[in-house]
From TrEMBL:
Protein name per Swiss-Prot or TrEMBL: Threonine synthase
Signal peptide interval: none
Assigned protein family: Belongs to the threonine synthase family.
Domain (Threonine synthase N-terminal): residue spans on this chain: 5-80
GO cellular component: cytoplasm
Length: 495
């Protein structure tokens, strides 16, 4: 039977998975959710004997029901291949008293690769299924990480091209080099003289420009976006929760049916929502522990039932979690509102106009699966050092937020359920913060200078992604003024 998708903000018409992937966002501004979360139809014991790719198929076939077996398996094979530097794709390592699920073995050494390596294939397959002949042009504004992961995912994928705008003076040296050395005839990277907000506004304006859409269509192009609310990014993230649970089962670390906790360093709420979906599919989960940095809007939400973005925005050493509007939370709100689109729409409206909303007591009761925690900058640095001193394992700042939150949680609750911590970036990506947490003498040195030191300290081979950009030639040097973004796109596409 076909699993259909609806918007979180209105009952409206339901769409198929491929249509939801193509559209990204519903017409009413809501997010697409499956009308129900499917249950796994093979046992976890059986999955424990499967590879990552086979597990991916068992999960995705239940969500993307309008894809044929062959289509889906082709997408999976193309995504989870030698771009990853380990056959396991997402290895689980035990250190100290927790298991770290390493989600950073893909092309850009951060967890966004888990979804962005398959999204381009889901998108082109969806286009074919819906008889779309145009080339899909992915337009993205980035403050650093997403841009590179999207470039790597879409590079040389037939039927697509990708244009990334970034603030010329607003990203780190490593991030800029990662982007401007990107290979692939269908990739374009453009620096703008403005900041990230300017880049984002420019991209939004192009998406909403009907005249431009018409000219694009005449030339055989149409825009699409790769942002994190696409259901084609959420579902692939469910896979590694199922996979990691079944690895514990395979190793005999847990018995069949035994519950585990997941701790997830959270920004936009996509990663932890995928864990919630995994639980609803039948994975035995105790607590879902949502870890925030000093931008602890989610921690406060789980404590009080009030989501309030009216607060100072703090720049931290875990920048991918520096977020005050966690877009994917809307899917959870919809769920705990009893799939009530009207109620969800009202709350999102309040968020837009007043910057906050309050959930009802009844909804709050349905949040029992979750608990929130947060780590200060000092806690985060201390945790990196503690785990390094005790075990020799070097973790990145985002993972350290989660690890710190886990230990606070454990002290408070004495919960000794086996626990998996989502490890979302390689320490090489945030070398300065990581190394100065271990030894103050590294403070002020840049990420590039610290690569060899980090290698000596951690004993972890320098990832290809890092090695490559040290020597790779610059392939993109276009810079434009903010007001000329559209002109630049027109020129690139030859409109
Ligand atoms: C994006 C990101 C996160 C946050 O994930 P969400 O799905 O947005 O909650 C955490 N850590 C790293 C390294 C990231 O890139």
């Amino acid at each position: 039977m076909e699993l259909m998708y609806q918007s979180t903000r209105s009952e409206g018409t339901k769409v198929t998975a491929s249509q939801a992937i193509l559209k990204g966002l519903a017409d009413d501004g809501g997010l697409f959710v499956p009308v129900s979360i499917p249950k796994l139809d093979v046992s976890l014991e059986d999955i424990s004997k499967m590879t990552y790719q086979e597990t991916a198929y068992e999960v995705m076939k239940l969500f993307f029901t309008d894809f044929t077996e062959n289509e889906l398996k082709t997408c999976i094979e193309r995504a989870y291949d030698s771009k990853f530097d380990t056959k396991e794709i997402a290895p689980l390592v035990k250190k100290s008293d927790a298991y770290y699920l390493e989600l950073f073995h893909g092309a850009t050494i951060a967890f966004k690769d888990m979804a962005l390596s398959i999204l381009p294939h889901l998108l082109t397959t969806s286009a074919k299924k819906n008889n779309i002949k145009n080339e899909i042009v992915i337009l993205t504004a980035t403050s650093g990480d997403t841009g590179k992961a999207a470039l790597a995912g879409f590079a040389d994928v037939e039927g697509t091209s990708i244009i990334v705008f970034y603030p010329k003076n607003g990203v780190s040296k490593i991030q800029e080099r990662q982007m401007v050395t990107q290979k692939g005839a269908n990739t374009k990277v453009v620096g703008i003289t403005g900041n990230f907000d300017d880049a984002q506004s420019g991209v939004k304006a192009m998406f909403n420009n009907k005249e431009l859409a018409k000219v694009m269509d005449e030339h055989g192009y149409q825009f699409s976006s790769a942002n994190s609310i696409n259901i084609g990014r959420l579902v692939p993230q469910v896979v590694y929760y199922v996979y990691s649970y079944t690895r514990l089962l395979a190793n005999g670390d847990i018995k069949a049916g035994e519950k585990v906790n997941f701790v997830v360093p959270t920004g936009n709420f996509g990663n932890i929502l995928a864990a919630f979906y995994a639980k609803n599919m039948g994975v035995p989960v105790g607590k879902l522990i949502c870890a925030s940095n000093e931008n602890k809007v989610l921690y406060d939400f789980f404590e009080t039932g009030v989501y309030d973005r009216n607060r100072e925005f703090i720049l931290t050493s875990s920048p991918s979690m520096d977020i005050l509007i966690s877009s994917n939370l809307e899917r959870l709100i919809f769920r705990i509102a009893g799939d009530d689109a009207k109620k969800t729409a009202d709350m999102m409206d309040a968020l837009k106009t007043t910057g906050k909303y309050t959930i009802t007591d009844e909804m709050k009761l349905k949040l029992a699966d979750f608990t929130g925690g947060w780590a200060s900058e000092e806690d985060t640095a201390k945790e990196i050092k503690r785990v390094f001193d005790e075990t020799g394992y070097v973790m990145d700042t985002h993972t350290a937020v989660a690890s710190s939150v886990y230990h606070t949680y454990k002290e408070k609750t004495n919960d000794d359920t086996k626990t998996i911590i989502a490890s979302t970036a390689s320490p090489y990506k945030f070398g300065t913060s990581v190394m100065s947490a271990i030894d103050k003498k590294y403070e002020g040195m840049d990420d590039f200078a610290l690569i060899d030191e980090l290698c000596k300290t951690s004993g972890v081979k320098i990832p290809n992604a890092v090695e490559e950009i040290r020597t790779a030639p610059v392939l993109h040097d276009t810079v434009c003024e903010t007001k000329d973004m559209q002109k630049t796109v027109e020129k690139i596409l030859g409109l």
